[in-house]
């Protein structure tokens, strides 16, 4: 009897506490074996990101333009570019979204302000008919200081006042999100500890974010599950077509 090989999901992780979160069970339920790739520690060549059935590039506190300081960035962006060119599924979250934008030739640079905390999105017409539709006017977790331009050949799905491109899509299975839907509110304290220096520099009181996580986190978690499950369903539909 021939054994069916499990599908593979590679999650590119830049800091330990920014992991798949609630995405992990959703991905596992769909039959994927999950492996983490720790950026900057493990070598990331083109084959690393092209071979898996699914790739998710997670967030982190560095900028895609800091290649001289963090030399692994160039290799990671090149591998993401090859993944995108292969038309295989990829989800970029925060730094991962910015890396997708850079891989597609778009500019990434510091935005006018840091967006940290729960705040609503404004969906575009395309966004309102996309997997993001449940998020219209709903608060989501933002945690970034960099913005990206819309890459050529992509469609903008969402914005905020200070970030015109909060989400974009190239194909139904290639999605970039500047905000965080994957974060588990019950594990949010690790973010407050891990990003304490950034919060201090930005003048943000962790107690305010903790209160937001307590009051807004549960609803955001359910919306996040709904959106991310819909995206995984789109990935499966595209694979079956």
Topology:
Layout: E1 7-13, H1 23-29, E2 32-38, H2 46-50, E3 54-57, H3 72-85, E4 90-93, H4 95-103, E5 108-120, E6 122-123, H5 125-128, E7 139-148, E8 155-160, E9 163-171, E10 174-177, H6 189-194, H7 196-202, H8 206-240
Parallel strand pairs: 1-2, 1-3, 3-4, 4-10
Antiparallel strand pairs: 5-7, 6-8, 8-9, 9-10
Structure explained in plain terms:
- This protein is of the alpha/beta class and 241 residues long.
- The protein has one domain (7-236): Class I glutamine amidotransferase (GATase) domain (Rossmann fold, 3-Layer(aba) Sandwich), CATH 3.40.50.
- Helices cover 36% and strands 27% of the residues.
- The chain has 8 helices and 10 strands.
- It has helices at 23-29, 46-50, 72-85, 95-103, 125-128, 189-194, 196-202, 206-240; strands at 7-13, 32-38, 54-57, 90-93, 108-120, 122-123, 139-148, 155-160, 163-171, 174-177.
- Helix 1 (23-29) links the parallel strand 1 (7-13) and strand 2.
- The longest helix is centred in the C-terminal third of the chain and has 35 residues, at 206-240.
- The two termini are 27 Å apart.
Give the rounded overall mean pLDDT: 95
N-to-C CA distance: 27 Å
What top-tier CATH class fits best? Alpha Beta
Oligomer: single chain
CATH superfamily: Class I glutamine amidotransferase (GATase) domain
H-E order = EHEHEHEHEEHEEEEHHH
Runs in which pLDDT lies below 50 for 5 or more consecutive residues are none
Characterize the biggest β-sheet: 8 strands, mixed
